[in-house]
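Need C-alpha cells for this chain, all 306 residues.
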Amino acid sequence: MKIKFNLKKGINHVFIPVYVNDKGPYNFTLDTGAQATTLSSTLTEELGLETNEIIGDKYEPLKKKRNLKRTEANLRIGTEDLITDEVWTMDLGFSTKTSGKKIIQTVEADGKKVIRAEHTNIQKVMKTTESGEKVIHTTDGIIGYTTLKNYILSVNYSTKIMQLIRKDQEFTNVNQDKMQKFEYIGDTHLVGIPVLINGEGPFPFVVDTGAGGTAISKNLNEKMNLPLSDIVAKAVGIHGAQETHIAIIDHLTVSSTTYDDIYAVIIDESIIGPKAKIIENGILGYNIFIEHELIIDYPNQTCAII
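Here are the C-alpha cells for all 306 residues:
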C-alpha cells in the first residue's frame, strides 16, 4: 500500500488519511514511538465505540492524565484494511499553558537567527507570550507499533510518500543493501539504531517519526559536555508540555550520513513519561529524516535512513 502524506507544519508530524469503521477519512499521525495504534477520545465518542479498561500498574499515569482505555475498531488506508493487534483510545490534545512570560526566540545576527552565543554582531531579540492556556487537538488518532509491527514501513520525506508492505509481500528498494539490524530499546517497542555524536559512540538512539526534532538525554548531554543554545524550547509529549533547553551537536552520524549543527532538545522525563528512563541516549526526529527516506522492516528487524 502506497499513499501520499502531509507534514503538519510547526510540529512536523506525518499525517495520513485513515478510515475507521468505514467512516472518514480522519487525520492520523504516523508515530514509530507510539506503543499502540490509538484513537482520540473525541473520535471514539463521535463513532460511538465501546471501551474497556486496560489492566496494569504501568498504565495508571496515562489512565489518570489521558483517560487511557482499550477499544475495537477496523482501520483502513485507501482500499487496504490495516492489520492491527490492539487499539487504544485516549485524550490526545495538549495544553500550551505557561507560567509568566517565556522566550520563544532569542538572537539574531546580520538579519539571521543564530544559536551560538559566541557569534559576532549579535543583537538580542526577545519574543514573549503572556500566560494563558489553549488546548490544541492536533490529531484524530495515531498509527503506532501494534499496527506497524506487522509491516515494512517506508516514509519518503522528499516525495511525501508512505508505504506499508505486509511481511508476505515483496519489497524491493534500490538501497536495500544499506539496511542494518536494529535493536529494541530495553523491553519496549522502540526502534534503536547506532549514532555517533561528535565522533564518539556509538550510542543507540530511538527512531521516532512522532518527534518534531532530535532529542538527547540529560545524562548523555552532560557526558558529552555539549554547549547549550540560548533558546528556551517548549517540548510537547504524551504527558504534557514543558519548557526545556536545547543542546548543540556539531556532528551527528547515523546510517553513514553526517549531519552538522544539530539542535537537540534535552529530554525531560516529566514530558515523555517513564520511558525517558529507558531512553538512555536520545531520539532521532524530523530534522534527521527531512529530505531522506526512512525504512523500518519490523518483521526482519532492520532499518535505514537513506
